[in-house]
Amino acid sequence: MPAIQRLFPAPIRSFLVGLACLLVIAQEGCLSVPTEGAVRTHALAFGAILDSQNGHPHSRLLPEMTPAQREEYVRRERELLGTSWDVHSREDLLDMLEKLQSGDFGQRRSFWDLRQRLLEGRTENYLKLINEAQARDQSGARAFFVATHLGPFHGRTLPITSWDFGRYINLCRWGVLSEWLTEQEAWERILPAARLLQASYASWDDFSADYFMGRNFWRQQSGAENDAVRYTVAILKNPPNGLWSTIPWSESLGEGKVLQDTLATKLLDHYSDPDPNRVSLDHLPNQNPLEVVIRASVDSK
Question: Model pTM?
Answer without folding.
Answer: 0.81
